[in-house]
């Protein structure tokens, strides 16, 4: 999780939080992420409390566009657009 002695957190953990927020916004058991366009705005360090907000901005059949922002101390550290898709069945087969 920590990249170096300065306690910098790897961006993948911030991305995972944003991805999870997008999935929660869609709230469907079969949802998958198909595309992401993101910006890492400020660094995150160990101990930072992050708050993710996700909002559906467009629905087109089974394709859903979700905007996500992550803040720490009321400062935007990450933003992105996540394109999600809802297949008929779970991506690994069958319904769960």
Outline the structure in words.
- With 96 residues, this protein is an alpha+beta fold.
- The chain has a single domain, classed as Roll (Thiol Ester Dehydrase, Chain A), CATH 3.10.129.
- The chain contains 1 helix and 4 strands.
- It has a 4-stranded antiparallel sheet with strand order 1-4-3-2, covered by helices on one side.
- β3 and β4 form a beta hairpin.
- It is elongated and about 45 Å long.
- It starts with 10 loop residues before the first helix and ends in an 11-residue tail after the last strand.
- 18% of the residues are buried.
- The model has no long low-confidence stretch (mean pLDDT 94).
Key descriptive features of the protein:
alpha+beta, Thiol Ester Dehydrase, Chain A, four-stranded antiparallel beta sheet, 42% strand
């Amino acid at each position: 999780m920590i990249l170096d002695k300065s306690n910098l957190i790897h961006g993948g953990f911030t991305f995972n939080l944003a991805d999870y927020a997008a999935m929660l916004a869609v709230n469907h058991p079969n949802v998958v992420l198909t595309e992401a366009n993101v910006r890492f705005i400020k660094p995150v360090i160990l101990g930072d409390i992050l708050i993710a907000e996700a909002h559906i901005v467009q629905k087109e059949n089974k394709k859903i566009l979700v905007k996500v922002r992550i803040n720490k101390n009321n400062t935007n550290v990450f933003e992105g657009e996540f394109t999600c898709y809802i297949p008929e069945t779970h991506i690994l087969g069958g319904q769960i």
